[in-house]
Design goal:
Blueprint: H1 2-18, H2 23-50, H3 57-72, H4 78-93, H5 102-128
Length: about 140
């Protein structure tokens, strides 16, 4: 599995070099992608722990990683994506959590934290200040 990942990474790197990407730009994009992925995994871990799930942290991160990989292969629209994430979360975590409905709340809370919250704050900023600004 690791060899496949390295091979894919190398092919993407070589392809982007052909489009004018420098090694530094590629590594910066890769670094920020890892930080984004790490924060998403951390959010899942924290929400699952708040829901009462106590298992081996490495196992937890592995299952979350597999779940995120499965979600990545499902190109759905904004709201269908949220429904699929909820159903997948319920399928994986529903039988383990003390309250199975918590498995449906976790993707919703992560969606609100990462998408809806920033969009509402940006809209509020634009409504109060942004549309009057000469910078935009």
């Amino acid at each position: 599995m690791g060899a496949v990942a390295v091979t894919v990474w190398w092919r993407i790197y070589r392809s982007l070099q052909g489009h004018g990407w420098s090694a530094r730009s590629f590594l910066q994009a890769y670094f920020w992608s890892l930080i984004r992925y790490g924060l998403l995994v951390l959010q899942w871990v924290l929400w699952l722990q708040m829901a009462g799930l106590i298992i081996n942290p490495l196992l937890l991160v592995g299952v979350i990683g597999a779940m995120l990989a499965l979600q990545w292969f499902m190109p759905l629209g904004l709201f269908l994506d949220l429904g699929f994430k909820g159903a997948l979360s319920f399928w994986i975590w529903g039988g383990i959590l003390a309250n199975p409905v918590d498995a449906l709340w976790i993707p919703l809370m992560i969606w609100i934290t990462n998408l809806a919250g920033p969009a509402l704050m940006g809209g509020l900023w634009w409504w109060t200040i942004g549309h009057k600004s000469k910078v935009l």
